[in-house]
Amino acid sequence: MTKAGFFHHFKSKEALGVAAAHSWSELIDGPVEGFTCLAVTMVQEVFGSSDGKRHRRPFATLLQIPVRRHRLQSPNNTTMRPAMSYFDGFVIPVPSGNKEAYRRVAAAMAPIFMELGALRVVEAWNDDVQPGKVNDFRTAVIAEPDEEVVFSFVEWPSKAVRDAAHVKMMDDPRMDSMEMPFSGQRLIYGGFTSLVDTHTDAKGA
């Protein structure tokens, strides 16, 4: 397909750029040559357009759309997300008296996650955690009577972005100064692929 052929399918260069960003989110785990040619062409076209001043960002920034938190907006102003997100999930026992200390640590760590490519960071303090007959959130982390439970997750554009972020965080000196106000030995966590996601399901409808 010729370069001009793209514009038979998209109303504008901006629309092409948004569609390309979503395509990159799916290709980012593959070879670089799978998306860089289109990226170069798109950046040149948008930068050169007469009404494209607001799009004139450094080339490197535009190329990192799939792995940084540039929240793209669709024509109806709904947030457009990668086709298949990846999630880190955590359940953490935190002493009741350490709620504010935990909030401070979480607030300090969230920008680091975002800097390394996360799309969203959520930290939630228990509110309606009922005891189960066999297992529940509290027994899962062997919570003590004076402890509460935090449910936390980080959304990433892909597993590759998440894995790269984890490596960088291990070497980040900012992490060394974080004093965790909970028992790390009883924290449980894991990585999860998206199975049902109302954001992407609604986008594809």
Count of alpha and pi helical runs: 8
Give the amount of beta strand, in percent.
15-25%
Spatial separation of the terminal alpha carbons: 27 Å
Widest β-sheet, arrangement of strands: 2-3-1-4
Q: Please tell me what the overall shape is.
A: globular
What is the SS-derived class? Answer: alpha+beta
Q: What's the helix-strand series? A: HHHEHEHEHHEH
Helical percentage: 25-40%
Radius of gyration: 21 Å
Low-confidence stretches: 31-36, 52-79
What's the story with the biggest beta sheet? 4 strands, antiparallel
Strands, total number? 4
Average pLDDT reading: 76
Description:
This protein is of the alpha+beta class and 205 residues long. The protein is 38% helix and 16% strand. The protein has eight helices and four strands, in the order αααβαβαβααβα. Strands 2-3-1-4 form a four-stranded antiparallel β-sheet. Helix 1 runs antiparallel to helix 2. The longest helix is centred in the middle third of the chain and has 17 residues. It is globular, with a radius of gyration of 21 Å.
